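Why predict the complex rather than its parts? Because the way molecules touch one another can change local conformation, and only a joint prediction can capture that. The input here totals 338 residues.
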Amino acid sequence: MTTGRFYRFLHRVTVVPWRSIAGEALDRVLLVAKTVRGPSMLPTINITGDIVAVERISPRWSLITAGDIVLLRSPENPLKTVTKRVLALEGEAVTFVVDPAKGDVVHTVLVPKGHLWVQGDNIYESRDSRQFGPVPYGLIQGRAFCKVWPPENFGFFRQKM
Amino acid sequence: MPLVCLEIWEMGTLGSLWLLARKSAIGALFGITISDRYLTISPVRGNSMHPTFAASSTTFPGYLRGDLVLIERFCLHDFKFCNGDVVIFLSPSDHKQIFVKRLIALPGEWVQVSCDAFKVPEGHCWVEGDNSALSWDSRSFGPIPMGLIRGRVTHVIWPPHRIGKVERKMQAGKFTQ
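Output of the joint prediction:
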């Protein structure tokens, strides 16, 4: 008798479309896994594109700090998403080498209010804030916190300055 | 204890409550998805778009006089906009604020700022309020990246005497090819 009731209860729980609910919630609020292609983050992320886990809570709650790897809409093409590392937050001064291939001319810039300074880890082959300047916070899509694929490289990203 | 719970679940009232909760959860999910991806409704406050939307103050009793507008988000799939569209976007200096302004120039076009021409860089656009005297827009913060755009305003839906389509309007003399 009790097992019958239990199964009926179980059935009620399972008919809820948990999968779609969970999918929506994950996609919107918590986690997405995305491939990242390109040479700009080279020592950290492979050129062929690794799958990384991305959480979308920190950008909403303004929890992004310097050293985080973020996914953002490219300011030069809104359809493109790029992966960069945050080097400086609003109000901070950032010093950078303008073109490391050609020399060591150094510039210092103050990041304006509501903006971030992002740069690729591969400073020789990256199109980032050194070209297009500080980016508005609103372009940030999420913070990558963990590398999922390939499995031998699985691990959490460490803060690197 | 779990057995008692099961007994109650099987009974009418709580069973229908469970059904109601399930339906409202699914409904809420549908609602969130639609409002995030396709269409949403939002109040407009402030004076910067005055002839197009009613002027209203940003403090409590005043903003009830503002307009409610319908915003479509289909345009975000390909980021194709026209000059004169009214768009909403996140403020470039504070991502928690959302502004509504008119798109004046698209990437690669020239705009006239006071007396000199300015070329809008790739992936950016130039936005200005219709009420240029009381608007904080691209004339102060420069061109904005198109990635900040969150939707296009298509209709005013409240108050009843202002219901209508939001016209695509070009400002004469602002835009030069």
